[in-house]
Write a structure and sequence with these properties.
The chain contains 5 helices and no strands. The chain has one domain. The longest helix has 34 residues. The protein is 73% helix and 0% strand. Helix 3 packs antiparallel against helix 4. Keywords: Membrane, Transmembrane, Transmembrane helix. This is YqhA family protein.
């Protein structure tokens, strides 16, 4: 039975490969959106008629915010792929091997840590989406636009309470 579970962990390669290719694709899309921002400023191109009411700087800002959002999602996919690889595929190395690890900035000690990192980045992505929505609809804001910041606030509070619970559990384990 142990061999079956050990072999099944390699099914995680599908998630790793798809997430990595998705991340690469989104890095390219983010670069294209950044190029569009430059084209708006330097070549006077307006990509969509829906943005014609904005001036050049606002359109460029809009596309730069969209590229930021795309890059953040690309990083989420990359962190997810690395986390799945670290947790389910790679063999655990001794502590000295961590010094040579190229991706030491993405430590994934357990699945809970991976979920927290991904949830924090998702909150940031939602905040960027809110900025994008406000920028495009600045002249036509209504009460519905408040749904997104209230959602961000509730998600942030939920994350804060979850992290506090985990920290108190860690302190209890350290005392024992």
């Amino acid at each position: 039975m142990k061999k079956t579970f050990n072999a099944f962990r390699y099914a995680g390669w599908l998630a790793i490969i798809c997430s990595t290719f998705g991340s690469l694709l989104l890095f390219i899309v983010g670069a294209m959106k950044t190029y569009t921002a430059f084209a708006v400023v330097f070549l006077n191109e307006v990509p969509h008629n829906s943005l014609a009411h904005l001036d050049t700087a606002d359109i460029a800002t809009y596309y730069l915010i969209k590229s930021l959002d795309t890059f953040l999602i690309a990083f989420v996919l990359f962190i997810f792929a690395h986390g799945v690889f670290t947790l389910f595929i790679s063999n655990k190395k001794p502590a000295d091997a961590d010094k040579e690890n190229v991706l030491a900035w993405i430590k994934t000690p357990n699945i809970g840590h991976l979920k927290n990192v991904l949830a924090e980045v998702i909150v940031i992505i939602l905040f960027v989406k809110f900025l994008e929505a406000v920028l495009v609809n600045f002249d036509h804001l209504d009460w519905k636009i408040l749904i997104l910041p209230v959602s961000i606030l509730l998600l942030s509070l939920g994350l804060k309470f979850l992290n506090l619970a985990e920290e108190s559990e860690d302190r209890i384990e350290e005392k024992e």
